[in-house]
Design goal:
- The structure is a single chain.
- The chain has 10 helices and 21 strands.
- With 438 residues, the chain is α/β, with parallel strands linked by helices.
- The strands form 2 sheets. Strands 3, 4, 6, 7, 9, 11, 13, 15, 17, 19 and 20 form an 11-stranded mixed sheet that branches.
- Strand 1 and strand 2 form a beta hairpin.
Length: 438
């Protein structure tokens, strides 16, 4: 059961204002998105809706969100305080969903396209037309359909075959508005054959306001290419964030993803990776929730061809009355022999009122595979705390060190030094005051 269109009149009015913008192929894509959103609505049904079993999006469906108004542009110094930032990175900045050319800086334009989507579309945009909307289907997901209906500003990254991007590419989506607004960030990354690139995708808020980020990313990784992807979410505690990512790995490619989530009121990331032959896929994540926050990681790894390796490793730190959801599913298709896949979800519960729903799963239709999964949730054992105390460390410091040690296993996998330093500082500040008492 989904809602009828009459419950979404606000989106109908907003869509009418942008339906006729852009070339015909883009108008057709947007119309296809809105028609499917009208059919699907938001997934608020509690029955027959397994993918959303533990996450209630009724507050998003009921809320009245307007389009962002023209807001004051923050300074670079303000962004430095809120984001990982280096002057020599290739950086695209979007303020309340709109591209900011004055805050963006591109250094490797001769080697690749790193640009605002609407600007690329105006100048032909053949690569955008070829790939946009091919991975993120509007047929079965209302959030993707709604994002597609409102495609406008967004990030386009195209790395030509054989090119190595020496500098990270930072896509920064910054929220500043005081009013309740909705933004539809769109990201398209195409890595040509045998290319290499590092992409950082950041979502941050400069205030405490309520808003809705409805984000969609499509990443195409051609044969033999290598993409390192980082996704950061540090938004208002009053905000809603629903992200959809679709990744297609062609034969012999490598893809690593590191996700770091905190700060959002209700967050969800729907992550799907299609893996070709002889690929390597490494997905790790760290999430920290407090108060009444809710974070949902819905991850699907699809081994479609043989001789590939995947690793899925997420960690959560929960306090207060917060809740986390982990749905990790690995599919090993018929003929995908020699697949090597392991997944794990570990959670540290710092409150008796915190809750995690973890559901790892394997579906295997091939022989000669090596697959495993596991999930844990609990507290630190008494012996570990005693060991720290016996060496003269006070209880509060010992507790803080143990919690940060739990988190640092994921943070230490970050290969970009400036980003590693930012995350280490950011998550250390976010650790709640806590003492392990037995």
């Amino acid at each position: 059961m989904t809602q009828t269109l009459t419950e979404y009149d606000r989106y109908t009015e907003q869509y009418a204002g942008i339906a006729d913008t852009g070339p015909k192929w883009l108008r057709d894509l947007k119309k296809k998105g809105f028609d499917n959103f009208a059919r699907l609505g938001f997934p608020t049904a509690r029955r027959g809706n397994e993918a959303w079993k533990y996450t209630n999006v009724a507050p998003v469906a009921r809320a009245e969100f307007s389009t962002p108004s023209t807001s004051e542009t923050p300074t670079v110094e303000t962004l430095r305080q809120a984001l990982p930032w280096q002057n020599d990175w290739n950086t695209l900045v979007f303020i309340d969903g709109r591209f900011s050319s004055e805050l963006s800086s591109i250094h490797d334009s001769d080697e690749a396209i790193v640009a605002n989507l609407s600007g690329v579309v105006e100048h032909d945009g053949a690569d955008v037309r070829r790939h946009l909307g091919t991975l993120a289907s509007v047929e079965d997901d209302g959030f993707t359909a709604l994002n597609t209906a409102f495609i406008g500003d967004g990030a386009v990254v195209h790395v030509p075959g054989g090119t190595t991007m020496e500098r990270p590419i930072h896509l920064a989506f910054v929220s500043t508005e005081e009013n309740r607004f909705v933004a539809h960030p769109r990201v398209l990354v195409v890595a040509g054959a045998e290319s290499e690139a590092t992409v950082i995708e950041s979502y941050v808020s400069l205030g405490d306001n309520a808003y809705f980020n409805n984000a969609v990313a499509e990443i195409v990784i051609e044969e033999g290419a290598n993409v390192e992807h980082y996704r950061l979410m540090d938004e208002s505690h009053e905000s809603y964030h629903v992200g959809v990512a679709r990744i297609h790995q062609k034969d012999g490619s490598s893809f690593s993803s590191r996700a770091f989530y905190k700060g959002v009121g209700l967050g969800r990331h729907d992550f799907y990776v299609h893996i070709g032959e002889g690929c390597e896929t490494d997905l790790s994540g760290l999430y920290i929730t407090s108060d009444t926050q809710h974070m949902d990681n819905f991850i699907n790894i699809d081994h479609a061809q043989p001789n590939s390796t995947s690793r899925l490793y997420y960690k959560g730190i929960l306090s207060g009355r917060s809740r986390a959801v982990f749905g990790g599913t690995v599919f090993v298709r018929e003929g995908a022999d020699k697949t090597d896949s392991l997944q794990s979800d570990k959670n540290l519960l710092l409150s008796p009122d915190a809750e995690v729903d973890s559901k790892p799963a394997l579906f295997i239709w091939a022989d000669d595979v090596k697959c495993g999964h596991g999930a844990t949730a609990g507290n630190v054992d008494e012996d570990t705390v005693f060991y720290m105390r016996s060496r003269g460390v006070d209880l509060e410091t010992a507790s803080r060190l143990l919690i940060f040690g739990f988190a640092s296993e994921v943070i230490d996998t970050v290969a970009v030094p400036e980003l590693h330093e930012y995350l280490e500082r950011s998550f250390l500040d976010a650790i709640p005051r806590y003492e392990f008492r037995f």
